[in-house]
Design a protein that fits this description.
Layout (H helix, E strand, L loop, with lengths): L1 E3 L1 H5 L6 E3 L5 E5 L10 E5 L3 E10 L5 E8 L15 E9 L4 E8 L4 E4 L11 E6 L14 E6 L4 E6 L4 E3 L3 E4 L9 E9 L4 E8 L9 E5 L15
Antiparallel strand pairs: 1-2, 3-4, 5-6, 6-7, 7-8, 9-10, 10-11, 11-12, 13-15, 14-15, 15-16, 16-17
C-alpha cells in the first residue's frame, strides 16, 4: 500500500511516498529453484513490514513467517516512518489456498528483530527486538525504551528496561562456536545516550539479558539511529 505519489513529488516533498490502502498487500512465495513465473502471490489485509525475523516450512506444506508488522506507513508524515503500532506477528501461509492467517505474538510496539541465524529457515525459539520512544513527525511515542528477548516456544519474554534518555538500536545475536542451546551466544548493539550525546556499544550474554553487560565501549558521539549490523567470524 505504500506507493509513489506524483502529487507529493510535484508539491516539492523530498519523500514523495504515501500510504494508499487501495493497493493490496501481498506475500510472495518463490521456490529456490523457481523463476519469476512461479511466484505465488498471497493477499493480506493492508499492512507494512520493514523487517522479517525468520520463516520455515511445516510438515503440512504451510509456511510460518514471523515479522514486525506496522498498521500503516507514511500515511501522515512526509519525513519518514509514522505508524502507530508495530507488533510482533506470526503469519501462517497456505501456498495451495493462498490464505494468510495472522496472529499477534506480542502487542508491544517494537522493531529491529534478530535471531540466531544458525536457525535460518528452521523452527526456532528465540527472537530479539527493541522498543524505543522515538518521535518522528506525527509518528508514535512509546512509553519506554527496552530490549526484549522473546521465547516463542513458551510464549514468554524477558525485558531489559533502559532509561528514558537511552535509545537502543538493533541488537545482533552472535552464536558461540560450540553452543549447545539456541541462546548460547552474545547480543550486541548500540545504545544512544541523549543526555551526554554519546553511544555505548554493549554486549550482553544471550542467556543473561537482565544481568550486567559482559562489555560496554563508550563512543564519544552519537551513532545515527537505525544503523544495522551484521557479524562475520574471521
Amino acid at each position: 500500500p505504500v506507493t509513489f505519489s506524483m502529487k507529493s513529488a510535484l508539491s516539492g516533498d523530498a519523500f514523495p511516498y504515501r500510504w494508499n490502502p487501495q493497493h493490496q498487500s501481498r506475500v510472495g512465495l518463490l521456490s529456490r529453484e523457481g523463476t519469476n513465473n512461479d511466484v505465488i502471490w498471497c493477499p493480506i489485509d493492508p499492512c507494512y513490514v520493514f523487517h522479517t525475523i525468520n520463516g520455515y516450512e511445516q510438515g503440512d506444506g504451510s509456511i510460518v513467517l514471523d515479522v514486525c508488522c506496522h498498521d500503516t506507513m507514511f500515511s501522515k508524515s512526509v519525513q519518514g516512518p509514522d505508524s502507530q503500532t508495530s507488533f510482533l506477528e506470526r503469519w501462517k501461509i497456505q501456498p495451495k489456498t493462498r490464505n494468510v492467517s495472522r496472529s499477534i505474538l506480542d502487542p508491544t510496539s517494537q522493531e529491529f528483530p534478530r535471531y540466531n541465524e544458525s536457525y535460518t529457515g528452521k523452527p526456532y525459539r528465540y527472537a530479539y527486538t527493541i522498543s524505543a520512544s522515538l518521535e518522528n513527525g506525527d509518528g508514535p511515542k512509546e512509553s519506554r525504551n527496552c530490549i526484549i528477548k522473546h521465547d516463542l516456544e513458551n510464549n514468554s519474554r524477558l525485558v531489559r528496561e533502559l532509561q528514558s534518555y537511552q535509545y537502543p538500536g538493533e541488537f545482533v545475536f552472535v552464536p558461540t562456536k560450540d553452543g549447545k542451546h539456541e541462546d548460547d551466544g552474545w547480543l550486541m548493539g548500540f545504545v544512544i545516550d541523549s543526555k551526554s550525546e554519546t553511544t555505548d556499544f554493549v554486549i550482553f550474554a544471550g542467556q543473561a539479558l537482565l544481568q550486567e553487560p559482559v562489555a560496554s565501549v563508550r563512543i564519544p558521539h552519537i551513532i545515527p539511529y537505525g544503523f544495522h549490523g551484521n557479524w562475520c567470524p574471521n
